[in-house]
Structures are given as structure tokens and as C-alpha cells.
Amino acid sequence: MPIPPDTLERQTEASRRPLMGDRSLDRAAIAWTVALALMPWPLVYLGAYFLHSAVAAFGFYHGLCVTVWVFRRRACRCYPNRPVYARVWTGLLIAGLAVSIATAILLTVIGVPSWLVDPVLIRHAMAALHAVFRFPACIGLYLYFAVVNPVAEEIFWRGVVYVRLRNAGCSVQSASIVSAVLFGSWHCLTVLLFFPPAMVVPVVMGIMAVGYVFAALYERYRSLPALILIHALTGDIPALIALAWAVHASS
Question: Percentage of residues in the chain with pLDDT exceeding 90?
Fold first, then answer.
């Protein structure tokens, strides 16, 4: 059945709206989005530094991500998803698995220098946060971060924060940079616990760079499921492998 011309025109206009670079900036919307993106700071600080609980810290954080997505997803629907071809899914899957396998091999063969990752520091941090790292109790922790964290972070940071910045009139470059800085900066609360002081700034800047790449990929593919897969296979799962190695090395 053919699509009526007026419906097709509305769909075309909706798909172009976020990409229009000549729109005037909606400064109030940008300010509200930045304020929203700063909310992980007090929640993670409350859980990690006040309650000394990894469960509380990330429960608050992921609860925020999901809650905001549930209540704001309608406002972001004007940024339509694009279908991802099977060859792209296959390429993403192969690339992600390659990163995870390479991480495991490197950690097994050459390890990680102590100036970059201190196994004793990581073990103490996990103990302070009451995080269980003994097998098999740690399986639940690893599965949670391999599945829940990439979903929660992508629907919040790219699905809401990035899209709101674009809808407010920010260019692709500006929205990518702002969302990446906001995404990476709050991680310093956890990086401070797990890395030597000299590595905090480089690690946080690295996370910002990852956030910029994720925003660029989302702009290109317009698919949160694809981005969630990339996040899990190239970010969270390799990080969990490194964490497991560090805990094992210090035992």
C-alpha cells in the first residue's frame, strides 16, 4: 500500500530535523540536558564514597539512566533509527570479539605494568566497595556489567543526552564533544578508586575519547542496539577481563 504524500512529507521532515545545522540554539534545552548529564555525579558519589557499596553506586546510576530513558524516549523519537545490515552486525561482532580475545591474550602473556593497573589497589578498592570477587559469586557481577551497563549507558548518553543536544541545535561535532566530556568526566569517581593517581587523568580522557567515538558511530548508524553491542564487546567485557586478571594476580 503506497504511503500518502502528506505522511511521507512529515516523516521526511522529522528525519531531517536533528540534522539541520542552521537552526538557532535552544540554550535552555542545552542547559537542561547538561544538568541532566551531571546527575550521575552525586548518585555515584553517594553509593561509592558514602555508602561504600558498588551495588548502591551502580544501582543508583543505572536506575537514573533507565528512568530518564523511560520518561524522555518520546521526546527523542524525532531522531529515527536506521536499519543495520547483516554484514555490519557481523563486522561489529567480529571486531568486538577480537578486542576481547586480544585483551585476554595480552593479559595472559605479558600482563599489565603496575604503573598502569595496580592489582593490589584494585583488590582493596573492591573490598572497600563490598564487591564480591571470589568465584563463583563474581559471575553475577560480571554478567551484570556485561549486559546491564552497556544498555543503560547507551540509552542514556547517546539515546537521550546526545539526541537532546542535537535536537537543541548543536552540530554533530559539538554534540559529540559535549556528550563525550560529560560521559567521561563522571567516571573519574570510579577511576580514582581503581587506578594509580598518575593515571587518573589519562584514563578519564581515554573514556572521553571512547564517548566521542560512540557518539560518531551513533550518528552514522542511528542504531542503539548496534551501539550497545559495540560498547559491551569493546569496552565493558575487556574491562571485566582486565579486572578478573588483576584480582587473580593479587590473590
Answer: 38
